Amino acid sequence: MAQRLPVVDLSGVLANDGAATRAAAEDVRRALTELGFFSIVGHGVPWSQVTDIYEQAARYHRLPAEVKAGHTMSATKMGYNPFGAAQKGDRLPALNAAFFLARPGSARNQLPTDVELPGFSDAVCAYYRTMDKVGHTMLRLYGLAADMPEDHFAQYFDPALATLRLSHYPDVPAENDQWGIDPHSDAGFMTMLPTNPVAGLSIKPEGGEWFEVDQEPESFVVNAGDMLRRWTNDRFLSTVHRALNTSGADRYAIPYFFDPRPDTVIDVLPTMVDAEHPKRHEPLVYRDYLSAFMRDGYAPVRGEGTTAPVRGEETTAPVRGEETQLAD
Ligand SMILES: [Fe+2]
Description:
- By secondary structure, this protein is an alpha+beta fold.
- It has helices spanning 11-14, 18-34, 47-62, 65-69, 120-145, 226-231, 286-295, 322-325, and strands at 7-9, 37-41, 80-81, 97-101, 161-169, 181-184, 190-194, 201-204, 211-212, 220-224, 240-243, 251-253, 256-259, 265-266, 284-285.
- The protein has a single domain (7-324), classed as B-lactam Antibiotic, Isopenicillin N Synthase, Chain (Jelly Rolls, Sandwich).
- The strands form 3 sheets. Strands 1, 2, 3, 4, 5, 7, 10, 12 and 13 form a 9-stranded mixed beta sheet that branches.
- The longest helix has 26 residues, at 120-145.
């Protein structure tokens, strides 16, 4: 049975209405402490831009295999991860292919040329910048939701370590316990996923049962990753989710991952510790956390990887793993 998520309206935030901003932050706090997922409306993103990126995703994945092979991801490059390449351990392969985009202008990007795919590069880079703005708006709410100053998180996202993923879930049958994306929690800070014309996202609340998400029209599903959970002393939840295409047609998904700079020290926020909630985690540098994915044998080790900069935007190094591998 499909269920709606809690809704947070950003229109008052974007209008710099203080009372509305505090109310929206309280909605975020409640949603993240109780479910780890919510939907945002009033976000100001022209929906025509979102529908265009869905179309751009379809165009990209329809390219000839040999063209996409020219953008194959490596330990130092973003780009294309072919169908069936995302496999963890003994699990069956995840039934998706994906294209990854780092910050526009990054040397890590591998984009099709305007001869290969006219207009694609400009469109996806513009969308990346649009979502970067939404992410920064969300940070204001996250600061307040965590009982910290409204501008607390911004210092760690200048610039954000953000990744746009264009996923393709073809119409193929899944074996038992095989998924478009395996059940997982996201590794980073925040993921934003626009309303999909083709359903397929399910989540499993802690202590609850799986349910399929019935998305609000023209909204973004927002969820917290493991890093925000750690930062908040496990008070904000990073909830398990999965995706499967049962539509009988192609399905595309375009999540945007919004994470702090790799040099960010993730230390439990002081507002998240009290007598009832003793500090659970020691500080760590986000870069080291990302590198752990490599040591754990994730992606680039097996040639299925995604990458992220170690310091600043332009440094290339293989660090990012599951959060871009697996997230819907
Ligand atoms: Fe995910």
